[in-house]
Amino acid sequence: MIERRHRRSHNQAEAMQMLLTAHRARLDARTLVVMTEDGRMLASAGDAPESVASAVAAGTAEVPGATLATWRLQAGDNRIVIGSWGGKLSCELGDGVRRILG
Hints:
Blueprint: H1 12-27, E1 31-36, E2 41-46, H2 49-58, E3 62-63, E4 66-75, E5 78-85, H3 91-101
Antiparallel strand pairs: 1-2, 1-5, 3-4, 4-5
Helix pairs in contact: 1-3
């Protein structure tokens, strides 16, 4: 198997930050957030993550100036929500979140 990750961390918070930063650039997203279903933000990358997390928690489909994409998934014992402001979501991002939190 070919290792795609060039940088990695065994620290969960740092690993999640690195994952979101890399995928934010790949997806051309303004902001990415990872949060629990009850609204607790676990990690973010980009502009105004609190606004994006609030919009995700409220079930809003838009934030000023862009569409908000959301994806719900199971990661270990946690139900997680990934939100993307101004970009798309990808299976690789979801797999990475599951791997880090699982």
